[in-house]
Design goal:
3 domains; 5-stranded mixed sheet; alpha+beta; Nucleotidyltransferase, domain 5; 19 strands; single chain; about 35% helix
């Protein structure tokens, strides 16, 4: 297996080749036991970057070379001799190799590597977060250091260069590493920082350009440019999925793989640096198993929108006067309402999503309340991560809704006489409000930032909200 690793400017850093095990031949309970390995959540990465920007901490990265090969294997595993080596002994018997260390492709390789690295981090003195187990925190008289782990990539934030040097030296003594120095490129994302202006920008322009070059024949060819990714009004739905063996289904068969590839790539893009794409991609991802012509045309529009916004970046310019707050909204235009939320800290977007609600709401107030409960769950995770960082703001977090009825429901149990089917959500959110974890606040619909995650907006509302999310309005 081979892979090209690129630098921030798109040039080739190195070609990577690996001997990969055929994990499909392994038998559960015999050749492997546990296989699940955690990966740091993107919201945790964004919190670390925003906190470093706000406090003027140093940011750097380290890459562990051939990480999986360091982890020991507990089970008795054997493999055929790789090509280029003798396959038989002097008596003509076929040779096999016993694995003492993991190989890429083994079912348990990621789990084994994660356990090994976690043990090293804890032994060195880090405290492992219980909320996001790929977050490690260290504090001493010399300063503080925060590290997040994405498989074999370590993003380091520190207040003391000497402290980082001691850690990286110890890491290099245990594993073969590449010390990348100051953070400019990580996880395929370009990081541009101005320490004098206290700003940090995250760009996936190279990723977008690669995606568009691969999908060039499928991008809408028109002289018109789109300043919104999805047209306002009725959206593609399940009724537009083609019946089996229909002419449309046969026509879409050749485009199905392209549709899935594009949606998968756009989901990664929208989840990290492009919240403006979240709603459109979420809607189109619902029909990835059987897209119709209407879904494909909508995808072409998203790609056309992306082609002239490829250089857009997510900008962090922290404003300490703006506390942690959560915007929550819902769209009640279909049987299952769409919930949307964005969490802002220091005036910067650190978490967002678009999701379908699992139950049918009987009123707009009910759908708004269910959306608020979902937002509270997500924001509780953010609060817990901030608590581990030691920066959780004092007092309740503002939960901003544009429905006064939904706000009343968060306080008044009597309001649930006609909404008993959402009692679990009712009890959960009302408990958080009663304990002053969240404080519901009313915001006008025109100021509801989460509106962009619940429906396709037009001008001028969409550009204004998009600018606020990406930090362009700062």
């Amino acid at each position: 297996m081979w892979h090209v690793k690129r630098k921030a400017d798109g040039s080739i850093e190195k070609w990577k080749a690996r001997l990969v095990a055929d994990g499909n031949t392994q038998i559960a309970g015999v050749n492997f036991q546990q296989v699940f390995s955690t990966v740091v959540k993107l919201v945790t990465v964004r919190i670390l970057l925003l906190l470093a920007c706000a406090n003027d901490y140093n940011l750097s990265s380290v890459d562990v070379r051939q990480a999986y090969l360091n982890a020991p294997v507990q089970e008795d595993l054997y493999m055929r001799v790789p090509p280029g080596l003798p396959r038989y002994d002097a008596q003509g018997r076929e040779l096999v190799l016993k694995l003492n260390k993991s190989l890429y492709g083994l079912r348990q390789a990621a789990k084994n590597w994660n356990k090994l690295l976690v043990a090293f981090m804890v032994d060195w003195g880090f405290k492992q977060s219980t909320i996001d187990t790929c977050l490690f925190l260290f504090s001493s008289n010399d300063g503080i250091m925060h590290v997040v782990i994405w498989v074999d990539d370590l993003i380091i934030s520190d207040s003391c260069p000497q402290l980082r040097t001691r850690f990286v030296t110890a890491l290099a003594a245990r594993f073969a590493i590449d010390d990348k120095g100051e953070l400019h490129w990580v996880l395929g994302i370009k990081v541009v920082r101005s320490r004098t202006a206290r700003t940090l920008a995250l760009s996936q322009e190279l990723y977008v350009q690669d995606l568009l070059s691969k999908l060039a024949p499928h991008v809408a060819t028109t002289c018109k440019t789109y300043d919104v990714p999805m047209a306002p009004g009725p959206q593609p739905d399940r009724d537009q999925c083609p019946p089996p063996d229909s002419p449309e289904a046969r026509d879409m068969a050749d485009k199905h793989e392209t549709y899935m590839t594009a949606i998968g790539a756009l989901l990664w893009l929208s989840s990290f640096t492009r919240p403006d794409l979240t709603y459109a991609v979420s809607v189109l991802a619902r029909y990835v198993s059987n897209p119709g012509k209407a879904h494909y045309v909508a995808l072409q529009r998203v790609l056309a929108y992306l082609s002239h916004t490829a250089a857009d970046v997510l900008v962090y310019k922290p404003d300490r006067s703006q506390p942690l707050c959560v915007y929550s909204d819902a769209d009640w235009s279909s049987s299952f309402s769409t919930s949307g939320s964005v969490t802002m800290w220091f005036g910067c977007a650190i978490a967002w999503y678009t999701r379908l609600q699992r139950s049918i709401s009987h009123s707009s107030a009910e759908s708004e309340y269910v959306a608020a409960s979902m937002a509270a769950r997500e924001a509780t995770f953010v609060r817990d991560v901030l608590h581990d960082f030691g920066v959780l703001p004092v007092g309740p977090t503002a939960l901003r809704l544009d429905s006064k009825s939904a706000i009343d429901m968060t306080y008044d149990a009597v309001a649930f006489k006609k909404t008993k089917h959402v009692l679990r959500d009712a009890n959960y959110l009302r408990d958080l409000v009663a304990r002053q974890v969240f404080a519901p606040e009313h915001v006008p619909s025109a100021s509801q930032l989460a509106d962009i995650f619940t429906k396709a907006l037009g001008r001028p509302l969409y550009p204004a909200m998009r600018a606020l999310l990406l930090g362009e309005a700062m």
